[in-house]
Design brief:
This protein is mostly beta strands and about 120 residues long. About 0% of the residues lie in helices and about 55% in strands. The chain has no helices and eleven strands. The protein has strands at about 1-5, 10, 15-25, 35-40, 45-50, 55-60, 65-70, 75-80, 90-100, 105-110, 115-120. β4 and β5 (about 45-50) form a beta hairpin. The termini are far apart. The mean pLDDT is about 95.
Length: about 120
């Protein structure tokens, strides 16, 4: 199983960014993919999840209206797009495959992370 993310991005405040997470080695439509981020000196922050089979999404309240997750089943790739960027969005963005065992959710595979820097 592999999750391979796109490269680092630099954006101006107010712009948008789209990060990809290409998966392989498993049945793409069988697992949720979550997006989490980590700002400098901060802990992990959950952004939401998408189920690639039907495109069902669940966004964290904080990002509602600014974030969009999509999935392309032809390439087994999920995307996160974040708009109206501000400096506080500077972070490393990760995709992760969600698994559930015994009623407990966990992430068993992670992308390598994508640095997004928002700066004028």
């Amino acid at each position: 199983v592999q999750l391979v993310q796109s490269g680092a991005e630099l954006r101006n405040p107010g712009a948008s960014v789209k990060v990809s997470c290409k998966t392989s080695g498993y049945t793409f439509t069988s697992y949720y993919i979550d997006w989490v981020r980590q700002a400098p000196g901060q802990g992990l922050e959950w952004m939401g999840r998408i189920h690639p089979e039907d495109g069902e999404t669940n966004y964290a309240q904080k990002f509602q209206g600014r974030v969009t997750f999509t999935a392309d089943t032809s390439t087994s790739t999920v995307y996160v797009e974040l708009s109206s960027l501000r400096s506080e969005d500077t972070a490393v963005y990760y995709c992760a495959r969600r698994v559930v065992a015994g009623g407990i959710c966990a992430y068993d595979y992670w992308g390598q992370g994508t640095q997004v820097t928002v700066s004028a």
